[in-house]
């Protein structure tokens, strides 16, 4: 009897210490990744900062072997300050807070811009993170002003926020990416107490569930509406392989968007939607073994088909959140999947060597293959969602 208890105690201790060792190893990997990110962004900061007073001053990608800078009006302008905030959160080094503030405040004119739905991305990733990580509540009014500007694009009869302006090709287009802009609207309602923004966000999310998804929960990229009747004029792609294909980043935007909508509303419909999208991604036959998707799940698969690290980073960040809201079996599944993505992104294949990649952390993303831009390139939003995923991973 005593012998059996002794063996049980030894077995439990061994299990405990091997789990602890695994946890310690994982923590060490994370710490070295954070150190490398700190070093890479620190090394390139003075070079990037030389352009701070130019019209184009936000690093977005690499073009013809040199750094591609964009203006405040580019849809990606919030991601560089956002990444600086994320690095501040990861390192707790005040220097990053100072830098994040400088770049955030260069975007102030965007709060009044009604010309594009992307103001949600731009302002929530920069000013929103300044509030979250820097406790800078003087930014609150900027969130509300931006929500007002974004709300001007709401078409009540169709129940959606218009993404881009009408032109020869589009009447009232809505892209799946637009789900990401809703976070700013929820934030504005929390700050102001005005439920208008919340209601616009949930109406848009509901219409998108109705019209953007196929029966397998993959999504179209663009739904073009008649804004007066809500009728659908066309279902198309803008950045995907085909109109009826599954553009990889679009699936990640949907997953992240509905996970965030569930967080903000506790509406089970959004949770079910996020889980169904997660299952579509996780069970997809075309996902390579390292779990970094091809740029489109329906793109012809070969060794040369470009991967999209940005889609993987967004998926990982979303799954780190979603796993907290679901039953144990799905929770483990989502966590394992996110961890697998993080291991791949931290590997030499995707994680740039120090002083290379024009300062970006990740390699191998895709901007838009149909437009021939940023193919197999670094992207500032890949870095943003990767560093956000690290914060979420660390908080587990
Ligand atoms: N929102 C544009 C993109 O994901 O490329």
What do these coordinates show?
It is a single chain. This protein is mainly α and 396 residues long. 53% of the residues lie in helices and 9% in strands. The protein is built from twelve helices and nine strands. The strands form four sheets. Strands 5-6-7 form a three-stranded antiparallel beta sheet, with no helix packed on it. The protein has a two-stranded antiparallel sheet with strand order 1-2. The protein has a two-stranded antiparallel ribbon with strand order 3-4. Strand 6 (222-225) and strand 7 (232-236) form a beta hairpin. Helix 4 (119-134) packs antiparallel against helix 5 and helix 8 (248-265) runs parallel beside helix 10 (309-322). It is globular, with a radius of gyration of 21 Å. The two termini are 39 Å apart. The structure holds glycine (GLY). Glycine is lined by residues 75, 177, 239, 249.
Give start-end ranges of low-pLDDT stretches.
Answer: none
Number of discrete helical segments? 12
C-alpha geometry: globular
Question: Distance between the terminal alpha carbons, to the nearest Å?
Answer: 39 Å
How large a portion of the residues is in β-strands, by DSSP E?
5-15%
**Percent of residues in helices:** 40-55%
- Using only C-alpha atoms, the radius of gyration works out to 21 Å
The whole-number mean of residue pLDDT values reads 95
As laid out across the biggest beta sheet, the strand order is 5-6-7
* H-E string: HEEHHHHEEEHHEEHHHHEEH
Bound molecules: glycine
Number of strands: 9
Q: How does the major sheet shape up? A: 3 strands, antiparallel
The assigned structural class equals: mainly alpha
């Amino acid at each position: 009897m005593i012998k059996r208890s002794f063996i049980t105690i030894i077995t439990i201790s061994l299990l405990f210490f091997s789990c602890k060792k695994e946890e310690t190893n994982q923590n060490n990997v994370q710490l070295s990744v954070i150190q490398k990110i700190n070093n890479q962004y620190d090394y390139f900061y003075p070079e990037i900062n030389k352009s701070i007073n130019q019209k184009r001053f936000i690093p977005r990608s690499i073009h013809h072997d040199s750094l591609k800078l964009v203006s405040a009006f580019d849809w990606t302008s919030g991601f560089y300050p956002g990444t600086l905030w994320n690095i501040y959160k990861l390192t707790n080094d005040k220097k990053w807070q100072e830098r994040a503030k400088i770049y955030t405040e260069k975007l102030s004119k965007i709060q009044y811009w009604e010309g594009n739905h992307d103001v949600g991305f731009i302002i929530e990733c920069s000013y929103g993170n300044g509030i979250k990580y820097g406790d800078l509540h003087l930014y609150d009014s900027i969130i509300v002003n931006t929500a007002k500007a974004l709300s001007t694009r709401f078409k009540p009869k169709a129940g959606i926020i218009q993404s881009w302006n009408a032109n020869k090709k589009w009447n009232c287009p809505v892209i799946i990416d637009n789900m990401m802009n809703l976070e700013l609207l929820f934030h504005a309602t929390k700050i102001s107490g005005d439920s208008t923004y919340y209601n616009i966000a949930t109406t848009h999310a509901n219409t998108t569930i109705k019209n953007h998804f196929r029966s397998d929960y993959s999504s179209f990229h663009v739904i073009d509406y008649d804004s007066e009747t809500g009728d659908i004029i066309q279902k198309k792609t803008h950045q995907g392989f085909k109109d009826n294909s599954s553009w990889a980043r679009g699936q990640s935007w949907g997953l992240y968007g509905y996970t965030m909508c569930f967080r903000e509303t506790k509406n089970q419909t959004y949770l079910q939607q996020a889980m169904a999208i997660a299952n579509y991604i996780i069970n997809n036959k075309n996902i390579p073994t390292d779990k970094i998707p091809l740029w489109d799940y329906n793109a012809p698969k070969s060794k040369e088909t470009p991967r999209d690290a940005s889609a993987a980073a967004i998926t990982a960040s979303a799954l780190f959140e979603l796993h907290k809201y679901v039953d144990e079996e799905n929770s483990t599944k989502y966590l394992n999947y996110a961890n697998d993505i993080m291991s791949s992104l931290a590997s030499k294949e995707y994680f740039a060597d120090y002083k290379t990649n024009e300062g970006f952390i990740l390699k191998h993303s895709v901007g838009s293959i149909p437009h021939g831009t940023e193919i197999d390139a670094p992207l500032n939003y890949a870095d943003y969602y990767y560093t956000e995923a690290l914060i979420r991973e660390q908080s587990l």
